[in-house]
Amino acid sequence: MALGTPAARPTARLLAASVLRYGLLFPAPGCLAVNKAANNPSSSPPEKSRPRTPRRTFTSTPTRRQEKPPQPQSVDTSSVSPTSDTTNKSLFTYDTQEPFYDTTKYDSLPRSFGTNQYMDINEDLRRSLRQLLWQFKAPIRYAFAYGSGVFSQGTSSKEKPMIDLIFGITYTQHWHSLNLTEHRDHYSFLGKLGSGAVAKVQDGFGAGVYFNTYVEVNGMMIKYGVVNLDTFCRDLTDWETLYLAGRMHKPVKILRDEARVRLANQANLLSALRVALLLLPEEFTEQQLYHTIAGISYLGDPRMNLFTENPHKVANIVSNQLPNFRRLYSPLVETLPNLVFKNDPEVNAPKDTILLQDMDVVRRGNMVRRLPKVFRKKLYFQYQRKWQIPQLEYEKLVGTSEEQEMMEGRQGGEFEQRIAADMENIRKEVKTVIKGTINWPSTSQSFKGFFTTGFVKTWKYLGEKIKKWKSAKKSPEAK
């Protein structure tokens, strides 16, 4: 077996369970029409002859135990072993609510799964970015581009913005060994110490990402970060640092896809939606929802409190990418039983589209229970301290093992419902956990940049950030 190619593993049952639960997550009915309307406000509504999906209401939405599993036709049956018993019974019992994300067991996914993550960009830019990847002989399993160089953020500049990229790789030291041989000039002085030192700096400090900045490839100025796929998927499913998971809350352009990451990111997007609902009131606009989601990763970012980041960045990202946010999250909104559109999103702009969430403590308690594992434990600890719950009683309330959770399902219990009922303080506590999750990894990652990027490039990068900050302060939005 070639180095860099993990062995195939059995996937049928957990794969089909995840696809069934996560709803056949291709764009929901009407989503494409929504995107067209967002891009062209003057366009006419869909023709009357076209069947339209009725809007859901809380009363028409069955409870979880009444829900029927989605139709199985979207499961890629070619990936299911013919000897399995999946043809005779459901692969997923809704009493357990949702699957556990063991993303190491995924080699492939149905083509229709997670297509809400795919964004359209300028075709010439897309080709250029794809060709750019071929300049790296070291194996890149997953790659995406993000930032103002790919998606407009409403700012204008005479200079072409730098393209931001993330590369997901399998073996850290091996990858850097190959890349150092081919592209030694991409690295700072750390490259002289060899791939072992580079790998230790990447995996041992900060958020597990190694950035090479101000690199010119095919006439394009790029900054690329390298991350191990295991680290990447853990952050997406568990929110260990929210460093990369937070970036994926916003639209990104996937250049090279990988099944594990696509599955993990679908869980990440759903988690972002749930956290946003905990931060929002009962009624809110679609644009407020996207603004809340996009702002999660900036809550604890120290750069937002300094003069190195545009203070209007979140608003700029959302207002200039509304069609992409709709494509990313509309299918997920359709899967949640406690969230409905109050008016028709097909004929209303996001700022006028109203959503309504069910504030019932049972449903919100279930939502708390289904937050990312590491993030959820931090939130539990906040409330354990606040309510001064003894350790033994606390363990009985929340459970002590994943095995117990798998047997009992991810239903919110007394403790989660009590958290959900704390309407006055839950927003504050959730924000505290977000800040605590992001602050240290983001700070240490920034310090790591002095060594991975080099002092000259780092000061140049900071200078450009300060320049953008000053420009933003002078903009009309700041007045």
TrEMBL record:
It holds the Pfam family Tam41_Mmp37. Residues 36-92 are annotated as: Disordered. It is a peripheral membrane protein. It comes from the Eukaryota. Residues 73-87 have a biased composition (Low complexity). Coiled coil: none annotated. GO terms for biological process: cardiolipin biosynthetic process; CDP-diacylglycerol biosynthetic process. Pathway: Phospholipid metabolism; CDP-diacylglycerol biosynthesis; CDP-diacylglycerol from sn-glycerol 3-phosphate: step 3/3; Lipid metabolism. Its EC number is 2.7.7.41. One of its GO terms (cellular component) is mitochondrial inner membrane. GO terms for molecular function: phosphatidate cytidylyltransferase activity. It is found in: Mitochondrion inner membrane. Belongs to the TAM41 family. This is Phosphatidate cytidylyltransferase, mitochondrial. It comes from Orbilia blumenaviensis. The gene is TAM41.
